[in-house]
Design a protein that fits this description.
two-stranded parallel sheet, about 140 residues, 3-stranded parallel β-sheet, alpha/beta, 5 strands, Rossmann fold, globular
């Protein structure tokens, strides 16, 4: 089983993806960019929505618990992300310098988007997906 210090979910699996990720990898912290906080607050109101989101976070932490050590829960966290070219460039530079490693199983082409989406759905076989877009090719529809 692969060991990661941090798993960053950019595929939209949400905290529920931590349980599926636990089946194929060991990790210390699972950070998802898909938080139900705003969605719950919009649907239920501020206080009830925040309470429902807190319950979601607790449930996600419990579902991601390692079976061998249920008392030692991994930390599932939510993060909010606004894409900025400078920040993405900084991440690229840090990865090139070996400050952290990036593990992508497969980069999917533009026309394979539906297959990539199916593969990243929550569940025991969930995987990360990365779309490979090249401006010249994407403009031509390939």
């Amino acid at each position: 089983m692969r060991r990661f210090d941090v798993v960053l979910d950019c595929a939209g699996l949400g905290g529920a993806g931590a349980g599926a990720a636990r089946l194929s990898a060991s990790f210390g912290v699972y950070v998802t960019l898909t938080s139900p906080l705003l969605r719950r607050a919009d649907a239920l109101g501020l206080a009830p929505g925040a309470a429902a989101a807190a319950a979601d976070l607790l449930r996600e932490n419990l579902s991601a618990a390692a079976p061998a050590a249920p008392a030692c829960l991994p930390r599932v966290r939510w993060a909010f992300f606004a894409p900025r070219a400078d920040d993405i460039e900084l991440l690229r530079q840090l990865a090139e310098q070996g400050k952290f490693g990036v593990s992508v199983e497969r980069a999917w082409g533009w026309r394979e988007g539906a297959a990539a989406y199916e593969r990243r759905r929550p569940g025991p076989r969930a995987r990360e997906a990365a779309a490979r877009l090249q401006p010249a090719l994407a403009a031509q529809g390939t």
